[in-house]
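FW: tagging you since you asked about this chain on Friday. Here's the raw sequence from the shared folder, copied in full. Didn't touch anything.
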Amino acid sequence: MGLSIAVCIKPVPDPKHYDKIKIDPVKKTVVREGISTILNPCDKHALEAALQLRGSDGAVTVITMAPPNAEETLREALAMGADAAILLTDRAFAGADTWATSYTLASGLKKAGPFDIIFTGTESADGATTQVPAQLAEWMDWPHLWNAVTVEQTGEQTLKVRTKAENEWSDYQVTLPCLLAMSRESNKPRLTSLMGVMKAKKKPLTVWCRPDLDVDDAALGMKGSPTQPGAIFEPEMGRKGILISGDVDEIAAQLVEKLRTAGLAIETGDVCAPGGGNV
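HL: got it, structure written out here
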């Protein structure tokens, strides 16, 4: 018997362009324009676990809450082998913290379901809070496990799941439905093939906006987020350059003198008041 599985994925900024990422000082959100995105690396392990567990007559649906251009990321997941995709996108969802994000995802999953299992990655490459999997499971009122390394179906409605914490492992028997956050160590995600890319173009991709979901507007986006950012500023990174000349002994003597003047006692390693004297 196949399983109906959902996989939550997220488009994240491409690490190759991290140097271009900026934060809007007024809106206090990441400026994503002009920054290419990739499928969150941890989510690939979640998708791989789902594909391995699906069964011959099962189905895997990928879902994300993201801007409209996330369709490309969803198509990549479809090319890996997912059967269908759902994009939750609306200006009302923008600026959401993990609480509002998990609430919106849960609303989309409840509409798209029922599902036997929801897979997620352990964390996103941009936020890395690790909060969404547990929050999402609580919205669903499902049992959940984080940092799962192996998943095995032991019965029609049961799984054996091994999780890792530090250097120890724990084995659980979990009853469906459940949510599992997959570890990076759990598997090696498959690569997409040309045939997979061609098939992905014909697979269903559904787009749902705010009016399509049964949600409370007060719990959406930035205004519905309990976590609010404080002041945002760019630190001054400039440094003063000083040219020191002379032979090796002269340069060493000058360095020692400048360090002492700056407040470092060379002999003891203590920090002193500029010019000498302990602080």
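FW: The two ends are 72 Å apart (CA to CA).
HL: agreed, and Residues 102 and 222 are 13 Å apart (CA to CA).
FW: great, closing this out.
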